[in-house]
Write a structure and sequence with these properties.
- The complex is a heterodimer of chains A (318) and B (535).
- Chain A has helices spanning 2-32, 37-42, 48-58, 64-76, 90-125, 130-144, 147-161, 177-183, 185-211, 214-221, 226-255, 258-264, 269-278, 282-309, 312-315.
- With 318 residues, chain A is mostly helical.
- Chain A is globular, with a radius of gyration of 24 Å.
- Chain B is an alpha+beta fold and 535 residues long.
- Among the domains of chain B are: 4-50, no CATH class; 291-502, Roll (Dipeptide-binding Protein, domain 3).
- Chain B is 31% helix and 20% strand.
- Chain B has helices at residues 4-18, 24-33, 38-49, 80-89, 137-145, 185-188, 253-261, 276-280, 310-318, 322-328, 360-370, 389-401, 417-420, 438-445, 460-470, 475-492, 522-526, 528-531; strands at 58-63, 94-96, 102-104, 107-112, 118-123, 163-167, 173-178, 216-222, 226-231, 244-249, 267-268, 285-299, 334-336, 376-381, 406-411, 430-431, 495-508, 511-512, 533-534.
- In chain B, strand 6 (163-167) and strand 7 (173-178) form a beta hairpin.
- Chain B starts with a helix and ends with a strand.
- The chains are: A mainly alpha (318), B alpha+beta (535).
- Chains A and B meet through helix 2, helix 3, helix 7, helix 12 and helix 13 of A and helix 7 and helix 13 of B.
Chain lengths: 318, 535
Amino acid sequence: MGDILRLVGKRLGYGLITLLVVSILIFFAVELLPGDVAQAVLGQGATAETLAALRDRLGLDQPAIVRYFHWLIGAVQGDFGTSLVSGEKVSTAIAGRFVNTLFLASYAAAIAVPISILLGIVVALLRNTLFDRVANVLTLTSISSPEFFLGYILILYFAVKWQMFPAISSLSSDMSFVDLLHRSFLPALTLVLVVTAHMMRMTRAAIINLLASPYIEMARLKGAPPWKVIVKHALPNAWAPIINVVALNLAYLITGVVLVEVVFVYPGIGQLLVDSVQKRDFPIVQACCLIFAATFILLNLAADVGAILTNPRLRHPK
Amino acid sequence: MTTNVQRDLMDKLAEAARAGRVSRRSFMSTAMAAGISATTATGLWTKQAAAQPKSGGVFRVGIHDNNSSDSHDPGTYLSIQQIFLAHTHRSYLTLINTDQTLGGDVASEWTATPDAAEWTFKLRENVSFHSGKKMTADDVIASLNFHRGDATTSAAKALLADVEDITKPDDYTVVIKLTGPNADLPWLMTDYHLCICPAKDDGTIDWESGDGTGPYKIDEGAFGIGFKLSRHEGWHLEGAYFDAVEMLALNDPNARQAALVTGDVDAVSSIELKTMALLARDPNIVVENVPSASAITMPMFCDQAPFDNVDVRMALKLAMNRDEIVEKIAFGAAIPGNDFHHSPAQPYYPDGVEQLSYDPDKAKALLKKAGAEGLSVSLSTTDSVFSGAVDLCVLYAEQAKAAGIDVKVVREPSDGYYSDVWLKKPFCVVAWGARPTPDVMYTLAYKDDAAWNESHWKNPRFNELLLEGKGELDDAKRADIYREMAVIARDDGGTIIPFFRNFTYAHHAKVQNSGQLAASWEMDGCRAASRWWFS
């Protein structure tokens, strides 16, 4: 157990260094974009005087490096600054939307993870049958279609034709939990369709890979039924790759959902990031990107810890 | 011919419709059974049966063009989300009526000195902020001063550049003194930046709180997501029939359309032109297609070869088939331009100025005269100018081939187009928002010394007329001046105007309006929330 804690500590340390590097990259990437926040805010209506006045007010006349360190010093103390465009605190601008994104991601994950692992096990059991082929074709089709296209198809049938679910998922604070689930079902379903194939096929491949091992043959020879061979003997050894894929897909559910947000008008963090990049609103861009980076780091760490915990050989190294 | 029997029947039907006893659909079928054509019946439904506004209901409206980074700062108003919200929760000095005339908002009347250099606005005394505070001249002055002075970052600074001083003789009178004559000042006050915010003691305004004197007050909401508003009881104008308004940010055109079709919203702005005809087939949905003063322009630098030759400019104008462009690029939802930046939706429009038509042979002859045969020009464009901006240029390039002109379409990056391409490249495509009067538009982009003189065009007679028109309070004389200016711009100017875009928006059939729609902005001058009602 102590080993694991040491590992987690070390990885968190590396994670912080990664975040620092990410923040530097993001800052200079935003600096490299043509135009600046003053031009983006004033748009077509900008004149030289109003541009100068706005730059002065936002402190853009300072060199980039100075502005970066100002931001960094604040960030280390937990103050991520205020939006250059709206003047709102970054934490208030992001908090509500990030909660929405987390909600949608958990909603989709709660459906997608059990379904894909279960499907993976079933198709491994019934490999090369008609069921296996149909499941593969369907999930591969859904992963190969762009998300917005899947979204429109779902809207066409579930919202316009059958009127079962609303076409837009605008949330409001006075909704009950059941309302929330109903409102955001279509975006969640779209995400489920997008991530299922990857996890299902990984589960299937990992299990089938193991089925050629001598110990599985032994299990078969002693007369264990096929489902027991898979669930009891193959699956425990297949967890490591499955957990890795699940972690990757969970990260995707949080960081890669801009299109789904746009199609379903879901108030998540992706749209905020896109808008902020357009307006060169560096503090918001930085905060969103750091959240995304931290998500990847933490989920990868969780995957590694999960892999160790499910593998006795790694748990008790010689 | 409508017989007496039919008229009698229609009267009864109309009465039933007013009382809400028949739906629009049964109204239509009964009317048609009585031998009245569909068009007449539709007209009757909107004009007679439904012309009585009714109070009540929650108006849910889906708006395009929303940014999460928008704010209540009137100096930064740019997106439709901000402009629609501004007209819903704030007020202006004046407004544009549904019949395109000028009317009063918080101002009840206005007069000018004979030289049009000093304007006096009388304010209504019954205007109050949502916070309960009474609105007085101090609030109006602070709100206008917000856009003036050296430190302002407002995009409306240029608009008020010739305001010298704003004073108040009493609490309900505001006097605006100008450095020169401007007969259009009351029209300028309808500009979407110039909304009234509560003044603070130091003469600045409090825009942060979102307080205003408009028909609805903001209950909750966030930019980029949406707003919930409820009626401001005691609003100073007629209207505000809905109990509450819900604005939803729907940036995706398909999301807007789906939301309207499924009944998740009652009205949407900016519908996709490609599918407009399909949407209009739905009997529950009414598509509005309103000509506007929002132009697409193609400015050419008149001080740079080859555009410094008026014959070359005219050849490029004649090489454009505007009818085909309106049909294929704007899907019919546009009016062809005539290369003067004055739309029929603006006041003083000169009727009967001969329309430039597609004439490749004449264009060829002009090029020969100019010694510019085999002309080759580069035209900068990008998709973000408006949807179809690249297609427009490609189609124009094809049309110009017949005149022996080689138009090279250059696709520029969307990002930073207005800072790096517009006013920098000699020939590009630009989208202009609607301006209230021809004077504002000409002063902004056609005056010889204007910062945004996008075509570098300097015509002495045009500039002389512009100044003359600006100070002329006699409407008939002004109309003549703008007619002459239109002809000069068409024949000599450096800007090709392919078309003026229509505003296209849609609402559920149960949403009613007066039958006339203000052409200043989308959604009935962005005042749908206070002007429309549920049948």
